[in-house]
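Table S2 (text version). Query chain:
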Amino acid sequence: MADSDSEKPLRKITEAFKELAATVNSQTVNMEVAPFSKACSLVSPLFGCLGIAFKFAELDYVAKVHDLAEASKSIATLHALIDRDIEGNSVRKPGSHSRNLLRVKRGLDMVRVLFEQIIATDGNSLKCPASTAYAQVFAPHHGWAIRTAVAAGMYALPTKAQLLKKLNEDEASARIQMQSYVIASAAVILYIDKLFHSKDLGIDW
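Corresponding C-alpha cell output:
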C-alpha cells in the first residue's frame, strides 16, 4: 500500500530538503525564498511533537516561516531578501526578513542536531538528544528564564517510541529519513551561514 504524504511527515521533510540541498550543491542558482519557506513549513509539526519544552520554539519558528512565505511573494531569492534589508538598514531590526531567516535557520539546525543525537543514542528517552540540541543551538541566544523553562519542560518530552508513532515511522525507517535530513539540511544551513558571512553580517546575533 502506498504511503500518503500526509501520513509520513518525516518523509515530506526529507524530500523537500534533498531538493534544497540539490540547489545548493549545483552552485549555479541562488536559493529561492518560496521553496525554502515551503520546506521549512514542513518542519513546524516536529516542534509540536516535542511538547511543552519546545513550545516557545514552535511558536517563534512558525511565525518566522510565515513571514518568509509572505516575503516570497515579492522577493525571489534569499540573496535578494538580505540585500533589501541591507539597503533599508534594517537587517538586525526585530521583524526583519533577515533576522527571521537567521532564526528559522537555527530551528532547522536544532532539528538536525536532535536527529543526529537520536540516531547516536540508544534507549527510548529523548531527554539527552533534545537537551544536547537545545544547548548547542538555542541556549547561547536565550536568557535565564527561557533556559530554565526549557529545562523543566524536558521532563515532559515524549519517548522516542511516542515520537515515531506520531511521525508514523518505525525505528528503521525513521533512522533512514533522519540521516537523510541531517545530510541535506547541513548543506542548506551552511549555505545560509555563508550568505550572512559574505555580506559581513555574522550569524551570532
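Notes on Table S2: Residues 49 and 163 are 7 Å apart (CA to CA). DSSP finds nine helices and no strands in the chain.
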